[in-house]
Design goal:
Blueprint: E1 10-15, H1 20-33, E2 36-41, E3 53-57, H2 60-70, E4 77-81, E5 92-93, H3 97-105, E6 110-114, E7 117-121, E8 125-129, E9 132-137, E10 144-150, E11 153-160, E12 162-166, H4 174-177, E13 189-195, E14 205-208, E15 213-220, E16 224-228, E17 232-236, E18 240-244, E19 249-253, H5 259-276, H6 279-291, H7 296-303, H8 307-319, E20 323-327, E21 335-339, H9 347-362
Parallel strand pairs: 1-2, 1-3, 3-4, 4-5
Antiparallel strand pairs: 6-19, 7-8, 7-18, 9-12, 9-16, 10-11, 10-15, 12-13, 13-14, 15-18, 16-17, 20-21
Helix pairs in contact: 1-3, 1-9, 6-8
Amino acid sequence: MTAISDEIRKLGVITSPADSSMVSLVIRLAKLTGFNVEPLEIEHLSSLSDVDALVIIGTDRVLLDALQVLGEKIKPILGISPPEYVSFLMPVSFNEIDRCLSALAKKQYKIVKYTRIKGKVDQKEVVYALNEIAIFSSKSAILIEYELLINGEHVWRDRSDGIIVATPVGSTAYAFSAGGPIIMENTPVLEIVPVNSLDPLKKPLVIKDTSKIVIRDISSRHPCEIIADGCKRVKVKKKVEITKAKTPVPVIKITATSITKESLEKKYALIKEIQEIPPSAKYILKVLEAEGPLSVKEIAEKTLLSPRTVRYSLALLIKRGLVKKLVDLRDTRQTYYEAVTSPWKNEVKSIREKLEHFKLNSR
């Protein structure tokens, strides 16, 4: 397996502020492997320097936050995920960093380019999404009305909880929970999923990714908003135009496993995991893993689920030992909920041991 890009010599290493200890360890390993390394903060990525590739450490949320800041200035990305974290976007486990960096230095990798979409809101602000762009009321469980056009042709007018436009990568995320089909990665299509439509005949659509999607005449009893990849929110007054973005997201793949086989295995693993608990509970668990402790109100605001659904899902997650309840010592009336296992639990110690072993072997 050979690289399809120029030699990678300089790495930009990105992480969230909460994981700063992890990035320092990765930087040291990368330097020992022979790379030039530049530490980068997500907030300053808009002025990206001349690095050859980006190393992003964390959950999918860290990557999605970085992509929002990067805009069109995207370099090949190597995603490093926490142990036991199911991810399509961060394919390298944290305990395999040394093997991964060695393969990268030997050019034993491929670059897979993932489609992303661009949304233009009311002819003004532009957002990008690797997974999906969704439109909902800013208040949970409130219907919206809209008209859908594809390539200038009227498709339907609908009343529903919302509408999702997803990429193949995003087809296993929120769109899947809303009833959309799973699409093989890099299939040249997009999917449109109405969320809880009042009309049972309104079903998900799969269309060419060269199509121009227009969602207009958007209205609701409360202000509506567009949500890109769950991390970028913009108020919408009347209209959103969605098209395939010119710049895809290039992801570095170290493993020699077939891309299609790897994709299916991960998607089947995700489906099995989702089947064990309701989609709403799975979604809440992922939000808690990414965001840290949250109250019921905060979870409802971030997920757009009703407070009743949030409480029911939290009860299931607590029963399974996946979430624990925290009481604010300053105000015992306030309760927060936290994912039980931190993604980085025990990894600092193991990676330090790996680093010392790497040093000895490189002498």
